[in-house]
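The authors assume throughout that readers already know how a fold can be written as discrete tokens. Each protein is reduced to its one-letter sequence and a matching series of backbone shape codes. I therefore recommend that a typical entry be quoted early in the introduction. For illustration, here is how one protein appears when written out as sequence plus structure tokens:
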Amino acid sequence: MPKKTNQRNGSLLYWSAETWAFLSLRLFLALKFITAGLGKFNNGGYSFSNLYDGFVASQSSAFESKTNLPALLYLPYLHSLAYIEIALGLLLLAGVKTKYTLALISLTYVSLGFGLMLLRNPDPVGTIGIYILLTSAALYFVRHNKFELLR
């Protein structure tokens, strides 16, 4: 005879704490990535010229002056970073292959941290480390995911 419980399996009110923890981490990380990507386009107004003349130009000059890396290694990354952040944020928000999307977000944070280390900019590296921990926590709780568009 099955156990009698007061819980209804599909109701939002009866989700576990782990499910709510994962949902809040997922929403936070998705919105953080989307706003970070869009922020690279905004320098007084959202446009492609703001991305290339503002963010990419300033970061490429920083890499040129502070590192010995050839431009071939960092320019493609800088040009695609905003698009990658927006795409991964939207995928995570929609719940498309959530585990793999979180893994890619984690690797993106690692690459951002590495770039900041190369630029000898230690202050934001700690913040990036916190985001990596949050992404790791979301990966741990991903088994409690209730909303997923594509598994």
